[in-house]
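In this supplementary section we document a worked example of the pipeline. Step one takes a protein sequence of length 199 as its only input; no multiple sequence alignment statistics are reported here. Step two produces a three-dimensional model, which step three serialises into structure tokens for compact storage. The input and output of this example are shown verbatim.
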Amino acid sequence: MEKRKSSSDSTAATIIKVVLLILAVIIILAIVIFVAFYFSNGFGGTYSTFIVKVNGESIAKNRDISLPRGSAVEFISFSDYSVTVTAAEPEIDFEIITDAGIMRYSDIAGEDLTSAFEITQTDGGVIVIEYGTIDEILSAHLGREATVSATPEFNIFNLVITSGNSSLTLPFSPGNFTDGTFIPVYDVQLGPSNGSLII
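The serialised model returned by step three reads:
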């Protein structure tokens, strides 16, 4: 009888060893994948090395987003991060009318428009983005009264979020723009990932 008990003990010990070995291999693979992901800038930039949630929706790749006024942006990052808004290259160019003359939107494509948006950070570390009408945004950026004949319904702005060597570019449309009070703001720099905001 003791021989049978010894045999079953040996079988149980072998099963436990195999299970522990499989778990060790899975843990090692997970660590290797994480390190490769982080140090390859999200597998060559395909994915960000940080997590962004826009209005509760997780985003890991460059793509179009909906960004209505008062949108909340949350970050989980190992590095400092920054948030900027740039003028996107328009799908269809359009005119901007100013007191200095008429210009095309493509003339300002790529320029930093962050100062024309109100970007604040809550106590919980969430970034809240507010803005006025497209005319107010362009006027604040250009430093003079500016109007467009019609509000474009395609993406003309990019929300650019950068952390370490990784960045996300999230184009958005002014289709969600509404009239309202516009408060010009200062250039924004975000501090460490502990959630501090430096203006």
